[in-house]
Write a structure and sequence with these properties.
With 128 residues, the chain is α+β, with helices and mostly antiparallel strands. The protein has helices at 29-34, 37-49, 55-59, 94-101, 107-119, and strands at residues 2-4, 11-13, 69-72, 89-92. A two-stranded antiparallel sheet has the order 1-2. It has a two-stranded antiparallel ribbon with strand order 3-4.
Length: 128
């Protein structure tokens, strides 16, 4: 018995798995959490609090407005309760975000910057 394939439009034998058929991707927990409206609002809040600037570039005297992303200092896979924790979030440009994800920027330093942003104090490196 033959059947028309809804994926590719060809005719296949019943029970045949068409190459055009792809199984749906299984989303990880952090992908599910990041797709919520609560996360979208929090991400916007953190960017606004940092004036839409990369917080590390700002310390270097640069003003990077492009490709600003919000980085979780403690990864969601390690602690998903930190999804909306202001002290665990920092606005970074794409370059610094990649360095932070690779572990080339110390998490303790990023936590200090996030704490300074939240408490309105001067970040380390700008103190005179």
């Amino acid at each position: 018995m033959w059947k028309s394939c809804s994926r590719c439009g060809r005719v296949h034998a019943v029970g045949y798995k068409c190459a055009a058929y792809t199984t749906p991707k299984i989303r990880t927990l952090d992908q599910k959490l990041r797709s919520t409206s609560r996360w979208q609002k929090k991400s916007e809040e953190i960017r606004a609090a940092s004036n839409y600037l990369c917080e590390l570039c700002k310390l270097e005297g640069k003003f990077e407005y492009n490709n600003i992303e919000v980085h979780h200092i403690i990864k969601l896979k390690d602690d998903s309760t930190k999804l909306l924790d202001n002290y665990n979030l920092i606005a970074l440009c794409k370059k610094h975000h990649e360095l932070a994800d690779a572990g080339k920027i110390e998490a303790s330093y990023l936590e200090e910057l996030a704490r300074c942003r939240e408490e309105g104090s001067t970040p380390p490196g700008l103190q005179r």
